[in-house]
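Summary of Year 1 activities. Much of the first year was spent building the evaluation harness for sequence design. The harness presents a backbone, in tokenized form, and records the residue chosen at every position. We chose the following record to illustrate the format because it has been used consistently in internal testing since the harness was completed.
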């Protein structure tokens, strides 16, 4: 499966958004002409795409690692008895 030019633009943006001035949401709207919701939905899909991994392995692996950490924190935070370990 090939990724589109828009998908490449999303990955490129995600790789370097922190260098841009202003809030991330405003930069998403200005540079990619899409809402934050659409952006994050597509970014989530790209994280699981072999083509996206081939295009930008460092960014995709970093995003996967953060996603896994958030999932683990949510799962571990839902213990029936938080006092027992």
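For this record, the design step produced the sequence shown next.
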């Amino acid at each position: 499966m090939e990724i589109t030019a828009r998908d490449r633009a999303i990955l490129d943006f995600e790789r370097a958004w922190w260098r841009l001035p202003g809030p991330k949401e405003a930069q998403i709207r200005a540079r990619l002409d899409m809402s934050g919701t659409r952006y994050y939905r597509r970014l989530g899909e790209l994280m699981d795409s072999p083509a996206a991994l081939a295009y930008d392995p460092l960014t995709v692996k970093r995003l996967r690692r953060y996603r896994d950490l958030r999932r683990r924190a949510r799962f571990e935070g839902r213990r029936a008895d938080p006092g027992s370990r």
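Helices lie at 5-16, 24-32, 36-47, 50-55, 57-76. Quantitative recovery figures across the full test set are reported in Table 2.
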